[in-house]
Specification:
Elements lengths: L1 H39 L4 H31 L9
Helix pairs in contact: 1-2
Length: 84
């Protein structure tokens, strides 16, 4: 039982850590491209900003799905049922 719980904790840590790292990299790339696009065509800055916020929301949604999966494994671990 302890082995299953320790592996679950490791997996949840990886899910949350890699999800956070991926989101941070995505936001960095997104912000950089926004600045680059606005510098090239300043008249499109408003439209690009709106689209950036749309993509930022979708990027955060991926992380929240990972958090939900991680919390599922923490609080309702399906692998513990196989012990009996």
């Amino acid at each position: 039982m302890q082995e299953i719980l320790s592996h679950t904790a490791l997996a949840v840590g990886l899910i949350l850590g890699l999800g956070g790292a991926g989101t941070a990299i995505g936001f960095g790339l997104l912000g950089g491209k926004l600045i680059e696009g606005t510098a090239r065509q300043p008249e499109l800055g408003g439209m690009l900003l709106g689209r950036m916020f749309l993509v930022a929301g979708l990027l955060d949604a991926v992380t929240f799905v990972g958090i939900g999966i991680g919390m599922f494994f923490v609080f309702a671990n399906p692998f513990l049922g196989q012990l009996h």
